[in-house]
Amino acid sequence: MTIQEPIYVRLSPEDIKEIATEVTKMLRARDYGNLGIEAHPNDFLTTQRAAEYLGFAPSTIRKMTSNKELPYYKPRGGRVLFLKSELDDWIRKGRVKSFEEIETEAATYVTLSSMGTKRKG
């Protein structure tokens, strides 16, 4: 095995910053790929960002994850991360029907149940 002489390259601070950004992206992509889901690292939110997105305090988000009320990821036992699309789904599951929708369902139920029963006369 031959030892090669080091190669020195002059880099500007901007070049170093760009390289660091790309390396960070690659490392994050590798870590998130280990989660077994198809998602871009930018699709994940930290606890603070999830709190801002949902309009809760970070302490509320932590409590909700502790109680398993919110879907979250914890790669390698590290920090808690939230997939934005899953938070959107969680929001949709909490939809409350309007009074008009409830009235329509009630009317449909009454109509269908009255059709299925015969009146004694």
From TrEMBL:
Species of origin: Xanthocytophaga flava
Ranges where the Helix-turn-helix domain occurs: 44-94
Origin superkingdom: Bacteria
Pfam families for the chain: HTH_17
Protein name: Helix-turn-helix domain-containing protein
GO MF, one annotated term: DNA binding
InterPro entries tied to this protein: DNA-bd_dom_put_sf (IPR009061), HTH_17 (IPR041657), SinI_DNA-bd (IPR010093)
